[in-house]
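Bug: token stream looks shifted between consecutive jobs. Job 1:
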Amino acid sequence: MRTIVLAGAIALAMAGSLPANAQIKGPLTPPMSAKSAAMTPTPAPAPPELCPVLNFSVHNRTNSAKVNVLFNLTNQGPITASNMKLTGITCTNGFVYSPMPGLLALPFTIPTVPTLGAGATVGGFNGFFSRPGGALSSAFSCTITSTNGPKNGCPGSKVVLIP
């Protein structure tokens, strides 16, 4: 084994860490090539997907054999809503969602508009409710769950009071 004086030893000696005549013993390590020393940049993480916030409200209620509620739909933003689908409606006070035969069986795509811009409101859909064994005139509330966006990637939930 031979003794080799490295340039690094001289630099350290200049900094005062080693005496000027210091020798480092050991095998000579080949210098790293510029290619192997290059840093690979790490890609920035993808920003979280923005989702529109859908708000359901009651526009009109009529009572007959069932309670018929016309719901408005508002997109509170921040982006346009698309492929809006209701996935569930759960009610209080003994009321249940009971669509007319052949109409709007859950889950269903909201039929009024294919897309809804941020801040826009439309008459969304008619929902029909029954109350087995009870009067239809009582107030109740429903939790409406929905999805929208590409591949229904934006789930949401809203409680709506039906006076």
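Job 2, same session, no restart:
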Amino acid sequence: MSETSDHATPAAVPGLRYIADWLTPHTGAALLASIDAASWSAQLKRRVQHYGHRYDYGRRSVAADSAESAPPLPEWARELAARLVAEKLMDDKAEQVIVNEYQPGQGISAHVDCVPCFGPVVAAISLGSSCLMDFTDPADNTKLAVPLAPGSLLVMAGPARYTWRHAIAPRKSDPGAAGRVPRGRRVSVTFRTILP
């Protein structure tokens, strides 16, 4: 198993693109306020919001039942989805947006976003606190830690989307160049297209 001791550059993961300051601090704060004005689901250990289509975690599929349908994408999500296409970061406008809230000590296990459910590009905005996202290549267990700063955008395509698993360790701080970096509340906003 090879593991890096320093934080990886996103280019070390094929198909991964990281854009720092994709949102200005003011825009990020306004987006977070809009998100917090909506209701949250507590069906998981962390709070979530689903828009466009609800992801069924138990079945690992997009919910087809109209009783489980999600509200349509709000205006802020439609605008950001259009910007992702205009900047050629996604080929098509996202039809599904999931908002995840992570309090210090919360994380998400290693996974690849549902391959039969979602399209070839997944884009995620980080708001609030920074954190490290771990990417692991299952071929040789290479593990790379990618720092995600508030306002940044992470775009996963190719091997980063389909092969490498990504995770956030459930801890209250992350290693940094000058010691441990405490985590605060982090909110991620993930944009995905739905496969027919």
